[in-house]
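Morning F.,

Quick status update on the modeling queue. The single chain you submitted on Monday has been processed. Sequence for confirmation:
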Amino acid sequence: MEFGIYVVIVGAIVWGLPTFLAWKFHTEYPIAAITSGSMWPVLKTGDLVLVKAVEREDLKIGDIVVWKNPIGFTIHRIVKLDKDTITTKGDANFTQDKPTPYENVVGKNVTWGNGNPIRIPYLGFISMWSSQIKETYAGTSN
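Structure tokens below.
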């Protein structure tokens, strides 16, 4: 009986929390893991961050945004806004990213009242670990 209760609680957290956050932040991708050191020292590898939808006109230079790229997602800071594109750069990177269309922007990092990004240290490693397992077993059959 107790085991069943634990299963329900874990299921509610694993399924319910992302579903709630997607509703709350109006985005399909409300949670992201930091998978590299490109945003160090503000965001560190293994951090889990919250992402909220943002209107194009609400984006400004200095915002940390998540945008789709051909192999996944990029989480970097806006350094330039143009008519049709944004340009971002990781805080620890020496070069800017190639400009990307506004349509690729998933959202921006949720921040505390002081403007610092909300991050949950180490929790992103779980997402990174599960992605590695998925990649390892993708295409294999019994």
